[in-house]
Amino acid sequence: MLERLKLAWVVARKDLLLEFRTRTAILSAVVFTALVLTVFNFGRDPTAVPTIDLAPSILWVTFTFAAMLALNRAFALELENHALEGLLVSPLSRTSLYWGKLIANLLFVTIVEAVGLPLFVLFFDVPVWHVLLPLVGVIALATVGFVAVGTLFSAMVIRTRFAELMLPVLLLPFLIPPLVGAVQVTARLLSGRPASEVVGWLRLLGAYDIVFVTLSTLLFPHTVDE
Amino acid sequence: MTLAQKGRWTTLVGLVLLAAVYVRALAFTPIERTQGPAQKIYYIHVPAAIWTETAMILVGVASIFFLFLKDARLDSFAEASAEVGTAFATIVLTTGPIWGKPIWGTWWTWDARLTSTLFLFFLYIGYLLLRGAVADPGARARYAAVLGICGMVLVPFIHFSVYLFRTLHPMPIILKPSAPALPGSMLATWGVSFAVFTVLYVGFVMQRYALARARQEVPHA
Amino acid sequence: MPETFPHNAGYMVAAYTVAAVILVAYAVSLYRRTRNL
């Protein structure tokens, strides 16, 4: 188990190193996040609708788009020079490969979210300090959920003709439980609702994460093996 | 008789029986007092919804067995059930709003059944698109199986999300017909309709399965 | 029969028609695709 995690980290490190040498994807994601937040800001009438009503949805739409950008590049790297075959014939286990990709994607999306959240607070003047820890917790829970499924799907989608289009189409239904949960919890946190209201959603998010990380780990070998 | 022929006959029987259900529902089943004649849409809408979901579960089950047994027939069944499920989902998503408009006053309501079916519909479309987008037959079957299993596992999460959402945002009216607390004659009509939809599912799947198997034998370019 | 219910039979007819059209259309589509099988 520990060996697998170490190998997974090797895969993740490779991806992250490659990414940080070029920095293109992460920069695009960050710029994109800022762009989306700006557009939403100019699109609303602050006197008509209180920010606090729209804020959770805006935040999560932004994070979801950014996650899609990250996932799209997840296996694209391996397509060049048949690097994927190289990975597969190595003694690397499929589980380690999946976990490595998952970790890399999570870190990537986390960085984008870490930039996006302060921008969001800044642009929309939303008070988050008093609920920062639970908010970060919810962000983490939801992100793990859709990145886990997204990593699995991106492995399948790279072999299709319209990969960048297929991924969001396939992923959409799977985003609903984590996104709805995340938006509901975020809304309640930001408006200072009692914790008891969010327990159900948090359980949903937690269960979703456990189930789909496990399922994706189990199914991943079928996306790369004959 | 070939499987496709049996499927055609089954479908024909199903359609004839459907006509009988129509007559029974429209002419011989009492009108519900508060909702009026529009309530009768329920006899078509709900059986279709049940089969939409059941078809997805069957896709998932067939996919699990396929990944273990590698039998191409299981993959063909999954393909067939997915397409038929999509057709039934279309019925739910069209009859639902037509029912919703006179009852709730709006075409779309985030009602539990309609919302779940909408996401099932997206799942089906994704599944069919994935099958169409993968050239290699071996990869296609495996990928479809992976997606099918994930889809099946997702279904309870969608239900739970919708349930949580609704308990915190209660809908103005709780529609009684959601639970099978119908008086005798209405329950009978519902039951017969459900049986007919079952026959239609079987007939459709038989034909679509035969088609999938035939394509496996002579692979398209 | 006491006329106490809302008059929305038009919706009922519409829904039943739409459902029938979808089912028959799908049956026809399957028939044409499996004709030779």
Account of the protein in words:
- The complex is a heterotrimer of chains A (226), B (221) and C (37).
- Chain A is an all-alpha fold.
- Chain A has helices at 2-22, 24-43, 51-72, 76-79, 83-89, 94-124, 132-157, 163-190, 199-224.
- Chain A has one domain (2-224).
- Chain A is built from nine helices and no strands.
- In chain A, helix 2 (24-43) packs antiparallel against helix 3 (51-72), helix 6 (94-124) packs across helix 9 and helix 8 (163-190) runs antiparallel to helix 9.
- The mean pLDDT of chain A is 85.
- With 221 residues, chain B is mainly alpha-helical.
- Chain B has one domain.
- Chain B is built from six helices and no strands.
- Chain B is globular and about 55 Å long.
- The model of chain B is unreliable at 172-180 (pLDDT under 50).
- The longest helix of chain C is centred in the middle third of the chain and has 25 residues, at 9-33.
Structural class of chain C: mainly alpha
The best one-word shape of chain C is rod-shaped
Radius of gyration of chain B: 19 Å
Can you tell me the residue ranges of chain C where pLDDT is under 50 for at least 5 consecutive residues?
none
Total discrete domains of chain B: 1
Beginning-to-end CA distance, first to last residue of chain C: 53 Å
SSE string of chain C, helices as H and strands as E: H
**How far from one another are the termini of chain B?**
29 Å
In oligomeric terms, what are we looking at?
heterotrimer
What value does the average pLDDT of chain C take?
Answer: 90
Mean pLDDT of chain B: 90
> What is the β-strand count of chain B?
0
Structure summary, number of beta strands of chain C = 0
Number of separate helices of chain C: 1
Secondary structure layout:
The complex is a heterotrimer of chains A (226), B (221) and C (37).
Chain A: H1 2-22, H2 24-43, H3 51-72, H4 76-79, H5 83-89, H6 94-124, H7 132-157, H8 163-190, H9 199-224
Helix pairs in contact in A: 1-6, 2-3, 2-6, 3-6, 3-7, 3-8, 6-7, 6-9, 7-8, 7-9, 8-9
Chain B: H1 3-27, H2 42-69, H3 72-104, H4 112-133, H5 137-168, H6 184-217
Helix pairs in contact in B: 1-6, 2-3, 2-4, 2-5, 2-6, 3-4, 3-5, 3-6, 4-5
Chain C: H1 9-33
